[in-house]
Write a sequence for this structure.
């Protein structure tokens, strides 16, 4: 049997898949051998017959090599390249061609380098080092906050994007906790609380902290629903209810303690636009005017558009709105459809995963991408309170490109190993 399995696995080029295939074959041969022994055969006779019935090990190995090998999601790769190029073109009216060529183009090319590096990286490292990775990332953020990153109006813009890296790390932490059963839920809740506080400390943004909170809650619910920690619908429902209540209280306290901040004032103005139209509500009037002044194709007809002072309009947080005004509704809709296609492709990768870590990591990446896409688009058309928005492919800056490159690279990495039979798949 050993010689048969060795010959077979030597035909599989992906070394990482060999151990899993060998284990699966060994279990199958042992089961078949025991079945023949029950019919009266000796152990040696039963084993020889079980191996013989498997067939030619070389042919089987070649066949398995075609199955258990790395793969690339070419559709998502094409969407990534096309959206990156389209994003650069569409950002020219916002930031100017000199900025795009001298900085954003370089950031984008570097981002593709990060995607390739993460693509070839084994994403399962998150499942082994999630807690350590979180501590290291926090240390890097502390150093960056005090010695490197630039502070503008009391906050560090780069941190508003970088803190999203906590989400895939939290997926790895959940995977590490999977053997602790009911205790894991309590530990996961504590981890969510710590990450939320760190996120707000680094980003000074209620919205970013809220987005990360939402992503982690969905990840925790998904892991509980898949039975990673506990079994039983009643216990699962109680766990989910406890998580939601506890962290809703936490964010209620966070909101109340910052009730006089600019973000809270903008949230209040969103629901009382007429009352605050001379203050924060004025921003929503600008959005309405820009949309009404836009055309189906071509630049809109607002003579004083360039005179608008609107945080986010020129800085990039409302790039979809500027794109609609500069290029027309049709271009904006096409770009939106491409983003939807990209997000649907990410959902496809999540849906196809067979192992727990693959599901959690891909779901974490999808949630960050999806939440920011939806939020950014809704802000640009006045359907969401004005706040920090980092839309994939449409928000400028090196930190934003880096974060999304890591997330996209992780999605590619998960998909690359989708058909590789490993111990994680067999758990």
């Amino acid at each position: 049997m050993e010689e048969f399995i060795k010959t077979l696995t030597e035909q599989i080029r992906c070394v990482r898949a060999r151990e899993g295939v060998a284990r699966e074959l060994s279990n199958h041969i042992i089961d078949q051998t025991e079945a023949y022994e029950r019919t009266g055969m000796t152990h040696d006779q039963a084993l020889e017959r079980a191996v013989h019935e498997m067939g030619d090990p070389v042919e089987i190995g070649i066949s398995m090599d075609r199955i258990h090998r790395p793969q690339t999601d070419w559709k998502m790769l094409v969407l990534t390249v096309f959206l990156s190029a389209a994003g650069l073109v569409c950002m020219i009216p916002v930031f100017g061609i000199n900025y795009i060529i001298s900085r954003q183009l370089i950031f984008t090319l570097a981002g593709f380098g990060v995607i390739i590096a993460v693509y070839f990286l084994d994403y399962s490292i998150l499942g082994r080092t999630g807690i350590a990775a979180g501590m290291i990332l926090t240390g890097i953020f502390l150093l960056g906050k005090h010695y490197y990153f630039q502070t503008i109006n009391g906050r560090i813009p780069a941190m508003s994007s970088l803190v999203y890296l906590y989400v895939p790390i939290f997926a790895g932490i959940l995977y590490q906790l999977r053997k602790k059963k009911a205790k894991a839920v309590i530990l996961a809740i504590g981890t969510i609380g710590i990450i939320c506080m760190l996120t707000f400390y680094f980003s000074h943004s209620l919205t970013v902290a809220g987005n990360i909170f939402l992503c982690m809650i969905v990840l925790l619910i998904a892991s509980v629903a898949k039975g990673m920690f506990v079994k039983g619908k009643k216990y699962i429902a109680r766990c989910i209810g406890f998580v939601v209540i506890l962290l809703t209280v936490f964010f209620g306290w966070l909101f109340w303690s910052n009730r006089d901040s600019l973000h809270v004032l903008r949230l209040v103005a969103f629901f009382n636009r007429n009352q605050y139209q001379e203050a924060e509500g004025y921003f929503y009037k600008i959005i309405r005017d820009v949309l009404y002044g836009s055309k189906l194709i071509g630049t809109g007809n607002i003579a004083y558009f360039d005179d608008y002072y609107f945080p986010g309009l020129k800085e990039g947080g409302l790039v979809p709105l500027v794109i609609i005004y500069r290029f027309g509704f049709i271009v904006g809709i096409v770009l939106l459809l491409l983003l939807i296609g990209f997000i649907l492709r990410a959902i496809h990768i999540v849906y196809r995963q067979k192992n727990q870590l693959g599901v959690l990591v891909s779901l974490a990446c999808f949630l960050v991408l999806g939440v920011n896409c939806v939020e950014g688009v809704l802000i640009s058309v006045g359907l969401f309170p004005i706040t920090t928005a980092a839309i994939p492919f449409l928000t400028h800056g090196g930190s934003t490109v880096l974060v999304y490159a890591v997330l996209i690279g992780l999605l590619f990495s998960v998909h690359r190993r989708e058909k590789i039979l490993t111990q994680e798949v067999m758990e």
